[in-house]
Amino acid sequence: MKQRKLGQHGPLVGAVGYGAMSLTDFYGPATDEGSLRILDECLDLGMTHIDTSNRYGSGRSETLIGTWLKRRRGATPFSIATKGGITANPDRPQNNEANYLQQELDASLTRLGVEMIDLYYVHRRDPALDIEAVTETLAGFIKAGKIKSFGFSEIAPTSLRRAHAIHPVAAVQSEYSLSTRYPELGLVQTCAELGTTLVAFSPVGRALLTDRPHTAASIAESPFLQGNPRFMEPNLSANLEVNARFRTLAADFGVSAAALAIGWLVHQGDHILPIPGTRHVAHLREVAAGGNLNLTQDDLARIDAALPVGWAHGDRYSVAQWNGPEKYC
């Protein structure tokens, strides 16, 4: 697979990483053995960046990755990212205080079974704290030898600039795809300017941009999708009708819709790193193929014509799901 650099000073990783939320039951039932097979396949496909969080399955995703690493033994073949900063306290859903992040980081290191984490994100910014102070805390973790680099998830370009003025920020994670192009209103550009990798989660639109989009039955398995505006009627039917054009275009190119969606993202800049997630090996191979597509400007124009900016019906989050991400436009 093609490779790209993770941050200004980070390692080379596969142009497509893996989003390990799917190792839990978030989008439907997942088995431990099935999840371990997915990690085997990631390595075989060259998807060498694994992106997880202490919140995915209440630590289950990290534990499974740790189990895989223990079975393999020897040097870790992946660049591993995880996150901290979200709490179970409804009165303070985000906590970026140094003591709390230290506690969460230590627990993640234990579950993963590693001495150092390659990339550690603040999962959601704490509005009670200046981002400069949080950046100093993260820089302290580097000095302590617990992490190699750090990033933030779902922050605004202005917040990134403030953090970067204190210490280089290796990555910002944000939802970015053909169905969610909000980052193009400043985040894509700021990341490129500062040498920060934009790690794009949900790069196939939570399956909207695949040949097998969610059905009512599969949506019923996920409380998140049940409450997400794009997967509620009448938006769901409208979205499926519109993106049928994209599925037809992918077939004309001779690739899967998922591969084409990933390929489009990879071509948005050398600093863009999609991290699709899946519980199925066949789908994993489809998204990995997107990392090797060579698309011309004419190809990209045809994709934009099939799914022009703003085509999706419904917001990407409900009011409740918007708790934490920074809005900036």
UniProtKB/TrEMBL annotation:
Keyword entries, A-Z: Oxidoreductase
Cellular component GO terms held in the UniProt record: cytoplasm
GO MF annotation list: oxidoreductase activity
Residues covered by the NADP-dependent oxidoreductase domain: 16-306
Coiled coil segments of this chain: none
A Pfam family annotated for this UniProt entry: Aldo_ket_red
Protein name, as recorded: Predicted oxidoreductase
Organism: Jannaschia faecimaris
